[in-house]
Amino acid sequence: MMNRVHRTLCSSRLWAKAVARELPQVLDPLPLGERVLEIGPGFGATTEVLAGRVPELTAVEVDQASARLLERKFAGRAEIVHGDGARLPFTDGRFSSVVCFTMLHHVPSVAAQDELFAQAFRVVEPGGVFAGVDSLANLGFRLLHLGDTMVVLDPQRLPMRLRAAGFTDVHVQHVPKRRVRFFARKPG
């Protein structure tokens, strides 16, 4: 759930420009492969960047209205699926990589986040990667999320949680009170 101010910001051109400027730095070192799944694209700023970089992109969005908007916006460039990241409607090993950007804090509980991690593990092929970035709590972030779902990741516990989902080669970087970035690989 997102409040009106948060929705306005995330659907703005200002946000899209910031994502277009910063996301390539996150993506450049990642071995995404041919078939990428994005979980939680929201209004599509990250999807726009990904669509120009990968051969086959699928995005799963939990909000039905947002999924419909994304279907129109990315017709012919990405497959958009209305669904829940904690219950992915895809076959095992379908994707070369799974990514999520600034959305995990909107997953309603730690248990649901863990299920999302398990689902990412299930749908990524052996040797494939799961990677993402999410925001950490600070005063501005908390104010932006008044009335929102906000379950912030604990960077200290994240490696353990990703390993519990089955991932290896887990790397977590964080800038205190700003963001956490992670990369993990499915064995194989």
List keywords for this structure.
188 residues; alpha/beta; 7-stranded mixed β-sheet; 7 helices
Give an overview of the whole structure.
This protein is α/β, with parallel strands linked by helices and 188 residues long. It contains 7 helices and 7 strands, in the order ααβαβαββαβααββ. A 7-stranded mixed beta sheet has the order 3-2-1-4-5-7-6, with helices on both faces. Helix 2 crosses helix 3 (45-51). The termini are far apart.
Task: Summarize the topology.
Layout (H helix, E strand, L loop, with lengths): L3 H7 L2 H15 L7 E5 L5 H7 L4 E6 L2 H10 L5 E4 L12 E7 L8 H14 E12 L3 H6 L13 H7 L3 E8 L3 E7 L3
Parallel strand pairs: 1-2, 1-4, 2-3, 4-5
Antiparallel strand pairs: 5-7, 6-7
Helix pairs in contact: 2-3
What is the structural class?
Answer: alpha/beta
Order of helices and strands: HHEHEHEEHEHHEE
Residue share in β-strands: 25-35%
Q: Strands of the largest sheet, in order across it? A: 3-2-1-4-5-7-6
Mean pLDDT: 90
The span between the termini is 36 Å
Largest sheet: 7 strands, mixed
- Total count of strands: 7
**Runs with pLDDT <50, length 5+?**
none
DSSP helix fraction: 25-40%
Q: Please, how many helices?
A: 7
Shape: globular
Please give the radius of gyration in angstroms. Answer: 15 Å
